[in-house]
């Protein structure tokens, strides 16, 4: 279970704090991954998989392979941008062990 400052993320969310998630979806169709952020992780992954997101609709099915939690939307946006850089994508490849053919 993910934690923030030693507390499970679910407890932070229950305390009224804004928890945002940076997530990585993997497409086995084209062996690429997609990085995004959201407030509701489960709903967002579902939306990606039901053809409602232009950026990923041709790459379904998508699998959630990694996520991080942030306490503010701004922090999540900054982290998302970091993970979309060349360094960030290299980090993700080693972190989640996805290798392109």
**CATH architecture descriptor text:** 3-Layer(aba) Sandwich
Strand content: 25-35%
CATH topology: GIY-YIG endonuclease
What's the alpha carbon Rg, rounded to whole Å?
14 Å
Oligomer: single chain
Low-confidence parts: none
The largest pleated sheet is described as:
3 strands, antiparallel
Structural class: alpha+beta
Count of distinct structural domains: 1
Strand order of the largest sheet: 4-3-5
Helix content: 25-40%
Give the full name of the CATH homologous superfamily.
Answer: GIY-YIG endonuclease
What is the strand and helix layout of this fold?
Elements (H helix, E strand, L loop, with lengths): L2 E2 L2 E2 H6 L5 E8 L4 E7 L2 H9 L12 E9 L2 H11 L2 H11 L5
Antiparallel strand pairs: 1-2, 3-4, 3-5
Would you mind describing this structure in some detail?
The protein is α+β, with helices and mostly antiparallel strands and 101 residues long. The chain has a single domain (20-96), classed as GIY-YIG endonuclease, CATH 3.40.1440.10. It is built from 4 helices and 5 strands; from the N terminus they run ββαββαβαα. It has a 3-stranded antiparallel beta sheet with strand order 4-3-5. The chain is globular.
